[in-house]
Amino acid sequence: MPLNQSCRFADKTERHGSTAANCMHVYSPRLIMTKQRVLQVSPLHPRNAICVVGTEVFLDIRRSIPRGATSFDVHGTSGVRVYIIYNHDFVKEPMSETRWPLDANIEITITMDFPSETVNDNKVRISYYGENGNEPIETAWLYLTCVSVSLDTDTNRTGVVESSEAEKTKWTWGPDGHGAVLLVNCDRDSLGSGGTDNTHPRVQSYADLQDMSIMILRTQGPSALFAENKLVLQVPASEADKVRVFHAAGNDSYYQYKPVLGPDKLSYAVDHASRQEITFYVEGLAFPDQDFSGLVSFSVMLLEVSNEGFPDTPIFTDTVVFRVSPWIMTPNTLQPLEVFVCSIESGANPNVDFLSAMSALVRKANCKLTVCPQLENRSDRWIQDELEFGYVEAPHKLFPVVFDSPRNRGLQNFPLRRILGPDFGYVTREPPKSQVSGLDSFGNLDVSPPVTVQGKEYPLGRILIGSSFPRSGGRRMAKVIRDFLYAQAVQPPVEVYSDWLTVGHVDEFLTFVPASDRKGFRLLLGSPRACYQLFEEKQQQGHGDAAQFTGLAGMAIITIDEILANETLRRSNRYAQNCIDWNRKILKQELGLSEEDIIDIPQLFVLRNSFADAFFPNLVNLVVLGTHLGIPKPFGPIVDGQCCLEEKVRSLLEPLGLTCTFINDFFSYFELEGDVHCGTNVLRKPFSFQWWNMIP
Questions:
Q1: pLDDT category, 21, cuts 50, 70, 90?
Q2: Inside any domain, residue 128
Q3: Of residues 16, 505, 543, 677, which has the active-site annotation?
Q4: Where in the cell (predicted)?
Q5: Which end of the chain has the smaller Cβ count within 10 Å, N or C?
Q6: Mean pLDDT score, 389-403
Q7: 303 and 352 inside one domain
Q8: How far apart are CA 404 and CA 475, in angstroms?
Q9: φ, ψ for residue 562 (rounded to 5)?
Q10: 339 and 268, same structural domain?
Q11: Which string of b and e fits 223-248 if b means at least 16 CB within 10 Å?
């Protein structure tokens, strides 16, 4: 192959650039990178070397300079780009046959743009000259074989693995970001296996593979070169317990896939066998958490094997980065898909009538209803406290994931035994049993709809956690749960004050409902102030003798006059209102809300042992099924044939296009310190917004 008669050069000044009148100005962004290798070139020993497409190799020609040599020139065959770099600038310009002084601060770099067809099919010649000679004193030869090695993932987040020019070693957020996404393989595609799929160090089924992200090793170049050298796939030791990589040892039958990287495997020598594409399947083993950012990297290294007993020499490394999908909660404004409720047919407080009313409401909302029978719930009706539904998402796959709370009562086994399954994942966090409190139940966990706060967008909303007043000694959600929720990053939590309540859950004083105007939702807050205003209005209208709890067997009634005259009750509700007002300020500030975004729902509370309970069924502890609301029936004072509390709530919510259905849960839930929301749980459609397009 003939040698080129020119090379390219770069100079920061005008002085040398102007001496070569026949040179073109060349700018090569490919050269703006760290040099991958340094090769020593000597006229005493011709050298064979490997070059990787697109990488820069520095030639060291000064270690064996012939005696009397004062200058040199360098030429390469057509597949080689040779650059003379001086003054350390990376704007390259071609030059004529110019001899360069050996005592100058000059560098030689080479690159190749295409892989070789045969071994040593390209070469570089360095000629050394004396001070006055026209013929070279000595000549050094470098024989080159170029290969292409690329580790590729779905860097562009399209669902397809393509070679990308994007920076693969970094993961960036936003619509213009790049970097692959990995799912925690926490569902159970094979019903005969126990636990989640990622607890098994083998592929369970073809469906199991679909939950994993694809990583492809692509190579080009002479097969003989790959046969004589090594390709090694690696994962950092600090990340190895967060992922597992599978590769098919034989054919593509799923049982042929074996783990090649993971908790006990940090590297894997790839069997190249003349294949230009080798596919790996990557599964996540862990969600982001306090000690794990969610980022995982893999590298492939090309190692040159020495025939002289020396250690293998690294030639080239390519690295890719994945981010594990966070667990994402779904707010009330998203479409309901399935409603879960427990059946309690025997015992002191059966819920047969409640279940019938919920069935009718679910039919109106066009949802699926799943009933957990008493044999499975073991008389535990508080399904909202037991679990929270969310989901995980990658460009190629999305599936729901149930988060199991550590309360571990009668429903303890329901999420794992009945919800975990094909394309339905499971996750939990377990604090020490002695540290579990009522605030660890997931009635104490909610999420807002999407909000914008002082120009900062939260397109997936913000998680709300009930916590203690800013003082020592109060109850808080367990640290391991809070750490998990904060680590998901895409729904930054807001801690509100719920420790003033006996049960201590956020769903006892707030909820969100959809709306077609403004921000697309309203925040509902329980309001003693609004309730007293309503009752005072009814008293002034001459209805002071209308009674709360009328029609409830075994319940003593109490009139509006008696409620308004009860100073102990009034003091209890001043305290409750102060606590709610404290939260109102937090929510307005952290969710970017105005007063027009908040609706005060009349509600009274009563203090018992310094903690508050609802005085009548809690009107904000409701279930949202699209535009259909299932609201606890308050059994309020009857005025003109109507419950004045129901009438007030309708007047506040129905103008938003919502339909209010009041459900009698008095004896089946309210007397047991809960209401409709506590006794139901809703699986919702995920956001259409893809989480990686946000900027946390």
A1: very low
A2: yes
A3: 505
A4: Cytoplasm
A5: N
A6: 98
A7: no
A8: 20
A9: -70, -40
A10: no
A11: eebbeebbbbbbbeeebbebbbbbbb
* Mean pLDDT, residues 521-529 taken together: 98
467 and 559, same domain (yes or no): yes
Starting at the edge strand found earlier in the chain, the sheet holding 397-404 runs: 328-329, 387-394, 397-404, 425-428
Question: What residues have CB less than 8 Å from 115, skipping those under 6 apart?
Answer: 53, 146, 147, 148, 220, 221
Q: What is the chain's percent helix, strand, coil content, to nearest 5? A: 20, 35, 45
Q: What's at 319, amino acid-wise? A: T
Active-site residue 385, yes or no?
Answer: yes
CATH number at residue 290: 2.60.40.1700
Asked if residues 645 and 549 have their Cβ atoms less than 8 Å apart, the reply is no
123: CATH: 2.60.40.1860
Q: Are residues 514 and 551 in the same domain?
A: yes
Active-site annotation holder among 187, 289, 385, 675:
385
Q: Are residues 122 and 195 in the same domain?
A: no
Measure CA of the first residue to CA of the last residue in the chain; give whole Å.
55
Please give the residue that has the higher pLDDT: either 291 or 86.
291
Rg of the chain over all Cα atoms, to the nearest angstrom: 35
Question: Residue 519 carries which side chain, given as an amino acid letter?
Answer: K
Q: What is the pLDDT of residues 435-448, one digit of tens each?
A: 899 999 999 999 99
Within a domain: residue 49? Answer: yes
- Average pLDDT, whole number, for the chain? 90
| Nearest C-alpha neighbor of 692 from the set 41, 173, 84 | 173
Q: Write out pLDDT tens, residues 357-388.
A: 999 999 999 999 999 999 999 999 999 999 99
CB 326 within 8 A of CB 461: no
pLDDT in tens, 241-259: 999 999 987 777 888 899 9
Q: Are residues 159 and 118 in the same domain?
A: no
How many structural domains are present in the chain?
A: 3
Q: Are residues 344 and 297 in the same domain?
A: no
Asked if residue 486 belongs to a domain, the reply is yes
* 264 labelled catalytic: no
Q: What is the domain extent for residue 407? A: 329-691
Q: Can you give the CATH number for the domain in which 413 is found?
A: 3.75.10.10
Please pick, among 507, 597, 600, 675, the residue that the annotation labels catalytic.
507
- The pLDDT score that the predictor gives to residue 1 is 57
444, 477 Cβ separation under 8 angstroms: yes
- End residue of a domain, out of 117, 148, 179: 148
Q: Among 130, 148, 166, which residue terminates a domain?
A: 148
Tell me if residue 238 falls in helix, strand or coil.
coil
Render 22-35 in DSSP notation, one character per residue: TPPP---GGGSS--
567-591 and 528-540 helices cross at what angle (nearest 10)? 130
pLDDT in tens, 258-273: 999 999 999 999 987 6
Q: Give the span between the Cα atoms of 651 and 635, in whole angstroms.
A: 17
How many CB atoms lie under 10 A from the CB of residue 500? Answer: 24
Residues in a beta bridge with 495: 465
**Domain assignment present for 16:** no
User: What is the three-class DSSP state of 226?
Assistant: helix
140 shares a domain with 127:
yes
Do 146 and 122 meet the contact criterion of CB atoms below 8 Å apart? yes
Distance CA 505, CA 509 (A): 8
